[in-house]
Amino acid sequence: MNRFILAFAACMAAAAQDRAKATDRPPLFFREDWKESPAELPITQAHVANADLVLSLHGPGKAGIKKSHHDKPADDPYYVWSGECRGNWAVSLRHKAALVDLRGQAKIKWRANQQGFRQLRAILQLADGTWLVSDLSDGPGRDWRETELIVADIRWRRLNMERVAEAAWADTPDLSRVREIGFTDLMPGGASAACSRLDWIEVYGKRVE
User: Fold this and answer.
1) Burial track 175-201 (b if 16+ CB lie within 10 A, e otherwise)
2) According to the model, what pLDDT value does residue 22 have?
3) What is the pLDDT of the chain when averaged over all its residues?
4) Quick one: pLDDT at residue 76?
5) What is the CA radius of gyration of the chain?
6) If you ran DSSP here, which 8-state letter would residue 5 be given?
7) Which residues are CB-neighbours of 114 under 8 A, at least 6 positions away?
8) Which of 45, 78, 91, 130 could serve as 126's disulfide partner, Cβ 3.0–4.6 Å?
C-alpha cells in the first residue's frame, strides 16, 4: 500500500512539473499572414496585415521579392515569392513597440513551399545590430507544409545583409533581445522551378519592452 501511495505521489509531482513547464512556454509574439490583395512586385509595407509590424527587404535581389496569389487553385494563399529575385534576398519583420526574447522554448513556425534546391532559413537581427541565419532549414516539397523551428536547436551563422550571404559561426549569440525576425534561402530566384514561397510566419517568444 505504501508503495502504491509513493508511486501515486511521484506521478502527481511529475504531472505538476509538466504543468509548470507548460506555463513557461512563451506566447505568440507575432503572426503575419499578408493582406488578401492582388499580386504585386515588389512586396511593400502596404501588404503587411499585422499593424504592429514593419517590413524590410534586403539584398541585391530585393526588388524581385513578390507578393503573389493565383485564382486557381481555389485555396491558393497570399504569399511571398522569390522566383523573380535576380540576386540573394531576405525579408524581415520588426515589431514597432517591442523586442523579443528567443531563449528557452521559443520557436518560429511558418507555412511554406520551396522548389528546386531552395532551403528556407530563419534570420534574426539582435539588439546590437548583428544579423544571424539559421543552420536548420525547410527544404523543397510538392505542396505547402508547416514547419516548426525550435530556436534552442538552431546553430547560427553571422549574416552579411548587404549580400545576404552567410559568414562565420556565431557560437553564443545573445537571443534575449531580438529586434527583427525573417527568412531567406540564400539564393537568387529561378522562376517557379527554383524558388521559395512563404504563406505565413509565427514567432513565439517573451516580449521585451
Assistant:
1) bbebbbbbbbbbbbbbeeebbbbbbbb
2) 47
3) 91
4) 85
5) 20
6) H
7) 120, 138, 139, 140, 141, 185, 195, 196, 197
8) 130
The stretches in the chain having pLDDT less than 70 are 1-23
Which H helix or E strand runs over 15?
helix 2-23
Burial of 128 (0-12, 13-18, 19+ CB in 10 A): exposed
Residue keyed to cell 546590437: 128
C-beta of residue 85 within 8 angstroms of C-beta of residue 186: no
Residue spans per domain, the chain: 27-208
Q: What is the pLDDT of residue 10?
A: 57
**44 forms bridges with which residues in the sheet?**
none
- Residue located via cell numbers 509538466: 18
Q: What is the pTM of this model?
A: 0.87
Q: Which residue has the cell 532559413?
A: 121
38 burial via Cβ count (<10 Å: 0-12, 13-18, 19+): exposed
Q: Classify domain 27-208 at the CATH topology level.
A: Jelly Rolls (2.60.120)
